[in-house]
Amino acid sequence: MSGLSLTQLVIELVRRLKGVEPNASVKASIYEVVESNGLEKYDDVPSWLIKFFRSIIDGQSTEKVYIYEEESQKSEADVWNFLAELENILGIESDDYGEGIEMVFKPLGIYAFISLESGFYRIQSAKDTQCTSYAAKKLSDSSSS
Known about the structure:
five-stranded antiparallel beta sheet, 5 helices, about 140 residues
C-alpha cells in the first residue's frame, strides 16, 4: 500500500469498513473532502496522516506517534476539518472535544485517539493484548451511543 494518495487510502478504508467497493457517489464525496481541505497533492499531506490511515487499514496498534515533531507543514491543508468531514463518509463514531479527537472504527476493531494538545496519535486494536480498557469499552459500546 506504499505510495497511495490520501484519497486512495480513504477509499481503501471505506472498502474495509463496509466490506464492499464504494460507489461513485461515495468516491466523489471523498475526492471533494480531500480537495476542499487542500490535501489533494501528496506533498501537502502530512506524512503522519498517511501512516495513521495505513495503521488503521492494517489493523495495527501503535504507541504514541508524535505528529508535530515529524515535519512542519507549509501548506494550507486543513487536516482537522478534513477528519471532521470524513466522519460521515466513513460512518464511524468520532468525537472532537477540542483538545483531542476520538475515532472508533468498530467494524475493524480499531480505536484511534489524536491529541491536539500534546501532538500525538495512538491507535489501539481490540485484538492487541495491550488494548486499554477504555479503548475496549469504546469499541464494545460505540453502537449504543
